[in-house]
Design brief:
The chain has 262 residues and is α/β, with parallel strands linked by helices. It has seven helices and nine strands, in the order βαβββαβααβαββαβα. The protein has a single domain, classed as Rossmann fold, CATH 3.40.50.
């Protein structure tokens, strides 16, 4: 267990997203199992606060659990949540290049049952934490993680809400939307070439037919990875950071969870 260095939170603030300066943010690495796979996630919480609190599961992007998810977890912890950054790929499996990342993400996208099993295993870890209020649990995910939290909702997981940031919206089993118990917020780049209008329309119809409580917010001039401050700023590449869309989607998430956790 360790205390996150002040420089980490300063870096988050400089990224344009404020945090609570009084927070005593700490982390703990947790090893757990799903079937025969050993997984390794990170629990993050504000030690300056007392007692159970709302909880958020964070699901990583296509390169696996890394510093980006740790920073987002620290930001959430400073807002008063206990956070578990889950591991879908497995302990030590952290693709370092786009080719390997695409192959690993594709493995789970093509096996949604396995994807759901992995993310539900992470949810189980978060649910049993002493600081977790079991009545107030949500999940967020980025890119591949956005796809994953939507599958978590489709699996019928007992959650207050899920938020997808520039995640894929498609599923091979749209009828599973009828299983959704969580409220759904999808934050989407309006110009995202990897999630085209037909996929967005199919998602909207899926949510309608499934009777879900859902929202979809599209951010103008934003492409894929608009929350990733490491993605550069060239929209022509299809993936780029957009500071306005990042800040607006973060505030949309905060408002969403404030409603679900009240």
């Amino acid at each position: 267990m360790k205390r996150i260095h002040v420089a980490l939170l300063l870096a988050v603030a400089l990224a344009g997203l404020a945090f609570d300066a009084a927070a005593e943010v700490k982390t703990k690495v947790i090893e757990y199992q799903q079937g025969d796979a050993t997984l390794e996630g990170v629990l993050t919480w504000d030690d300056a606060r007392n007692g159970p609190r709302p909880a958020v599961l964070v699901v990583h992007q296509w390169k696996g659990l890394g510093e980006y998810e740790r920073k987002r977890s620290a930001m959430l912890a400073s807002l008063g949540y206990v956070v578990f950054a889950t591991d879908i790929y497995g302990k030590g499996i952290r693709p370092s290049n786009p080719k390997d990342a695409a192959a690993m993400a594709g493995k789970f996208k093509s096996d949604r049952a396995l994807l759901r099993a992995r993310v539900n295993a992470g949810l189980a870890v978060l649910r049993k934490q002493e600081l977790t209020d079991p009545r107030r649990i949500g999940a967020i995910g980025y890119c591949f993680g956005g796809t994953t939290v939507l599958e978590l909702a489709r699996s019928g997981a007992d959650l207050a809400g899920v938020v997808s940031f520039h995640g894929g919206l498609n599923t091979p089993t749209p009828d599973d939307a009828k299983n959704i118990k969580a409220r759904v917020l999808a934050c989407h780049g309006a110009d995202d070439p990897f999630v085209p209008p037909a996929e967005v329309a199919a998602f909207e119809e899926e949510m309608r037919q499934g009777g879900a409580d859902w929202q979809l917010v599209a951010y103008g001039h934003a492409v894929h990875s608009f929350t990733d401050w490491n993605a550069g700023g060239d929209n022509s590449k299809g993936a780029a950071y957009n500071a306005k869309a990042d800040a607006r989607s973060w505030e949309a998430m905060r408002s969403f969870f404030a409603e679900q956790f009240k």
